[in-house]
Design goal:
The protein is mostly helical. About 75% of the residues lie in helices and about 0% in strands. Helix 4 packs parallel to helix 7. The protein is globular, with a radius of gyration of 19 Å.
Length: about 240
Amino acid sequence: MSAPLLTQSGRWRRIVQYDLRNIVRDPMLLIVMVMSALPALGLAIWRSDIDAAALGAFDAAGFTRYLIPTFLVLPALLIGWVVGFLTLEDRDEGALMAVAITPLGARAYLGYRAALAAGLTMGLTIYGILLLLPGISFPLATLISVLVAIEAVLSAAILPAMARNKVEGLALTKLTNILAMAPLAALLPFPWRYAFGIVPHYWLGELLLVPPAEAMPLWITAALALAVHAIVVAGLLRRIRR
């Protein structure tokens, strides 16, 4: 291996170690990271009990089916929040400015953070799909995994894009948590549900909650969902660069 590659690999290893140390030393960040793996597992374990309770209380059969999109998107919100909060912390403490003048550069550093959020979330989404949607088709499972991974990047980007410091970031988190409920808008009648199509998280509901007879072809839904996700994330990244 050449010397430049050795230098690059050592630099990235130190950055990963730095992030892990920050997460471990902050109990709140560590708890959030651990919690990101629990929603799908909990729903899988108690799914039949929840369905039975909902059927007895509200006469609602298959109640947990409506919860699945929200439970799949929760890891994206949680992991994205951790990564976004670390980025806010770096900006507050001047670390991001210091990285910007190194050969690595701030763009590569933020790209690594985005890839970290997306990779961890995609793994958890695949795990959640295997637990909650074992009969789903491969193309649909792939699309959902990609969309949720992008939503983790969105969640990571929204804090440094919209908040000026960690205090504002915590306040903003209370608002962004509402995004977990956006897939439920797909239960609204046609065409009113498409008013929520500008919210990226809505499209999980479109894919999983809309009956096949009322749904658009998968390729059209996929194209619209990916376009909305790309536009929103690009806008947030542009604001961060400014």
